[in-house]
């Protein structure tokens, strides 16, 4: 089978590498020339698990990125620490994305992927419901057509070649319309209780801050707030740099962490509007990473969702190629697994923004979201274990690999999640109560007919006979 991947970010590179390692003929086109700047520097431990599968973790360990064990959250009046390395024995990284993304793309090339940069996918042509050609243009202005493929992976990020531009079915989530502003420092500090290399997340009355340790003694410090609050504050300051310095100064905690530190300038601003497409796949194609959905950066889940969807898509295509599953079965599994992962994280992020629950409420909600209401109970009170597992992306990988797609289909648990989601809908939101999973096969038990396996080869493994 010949596969065309459009987009060379983490999702595209990972999917391409995994499929090439499975013996498929993979071509990847990317509009940018790497290295190129990108935000999203704090990786979850699930990223290491996925990158172990494609054999690139050792390269990242040796490169010199900061190794991340966990983090600290100061949220309103609550404070708690999570340490994935202590809990699960897994470390991740704090990365410069320009370097991280370049390493992944080069790893794809070294594993047999035909990589071409400076080529942008402009439109997709369909015949009988399947993509058959992609119209492209090059940096030099020349147009071209790529039509030698059997399956298409759309990894075009927020540009969303299929979801946003072709189908027009990507819906914004009205309760997460935020803006991020950030910059870099030297000489800044982390909260003293931070696990080695960990992230700090610090709330404010109208948003929250991140503090991320980077290689070379730098610190990435950012602030996320609503678009209305940002617009109001921006009018009161002559430049983005002035606004950013003001926002750092008004937080006693963040001001303390930057006392005596040097701001390196060059403030960056980006809208972080969350969205989700009505469908993540169809005959002959799958949409991975930000091209399908994007979630507010509160829990640093962007690269997790990218790599998780990429590995899942690659497993589906590899099993299709070997004749182990039909395309319909494989795509049903992909849609279910990726949408469920996004839905669960969306529920947790939304509830945290509502601020009506304390940390024990977050932890109990996390137990329900992974169907583990009992394990969160500890003698000394409610445990953060489920919360840490969800934000680390580990629950998604565990369920996909252990045929646990059945867990979330239990009607009581589905209704519990629905109740949580109804409570966090923004007043001006429209549509069904459970907008983020419109069209989602949440109760489609057929999705549990398979599980994702990585050994002896990447693919899907049947765990029960399909029903008629």
Model description:
Belongs to the flavin-dependent halogenase family. Bacterial tryptophan halogenase subfamily. InterPro entries: FAD/NAD-bd_sf, Flavin-dep_Halogenase_NPB, Flavin_halogenase. This is Dehydrogenase (Flavoprotein). The chain has 15 helices and 26 strands. The two termini are 29 Å apart. It has a domain at 2-66 and 97-170 and 278-321: FAD/NAD(P)-binding domain. A hairpin with a 2-residue loop joins strand 8 and strand 9.
Q: Identify the overall geometry.
A: globular
Strand composition percent = 25-35%
Q: Averaged pLDDT, please?
A: 89
Total beta strand runs = 26
The first-level CATH class of one domain is given as: Alpha Beta
Q: Number of helix segments?
A: 15
The span between the termini is: 29 Å
> What is the helical fraction, as a range of percent?
25-40%
| CATH-derived topology of one domain | FAD/NAD(P)-binding domain
CATH superfamily of one domain: FAD/NAD(P)-binding domain
**Low-pLDDT runs:** 374-380, 404-447
CATH architecture of one domain: 3-Layer(bba) Sandwich
Structural class: alpha+beta
Gyration radius, rounded: 21 Å
> What summary fits the major beta sheet?
8 strands, mixed
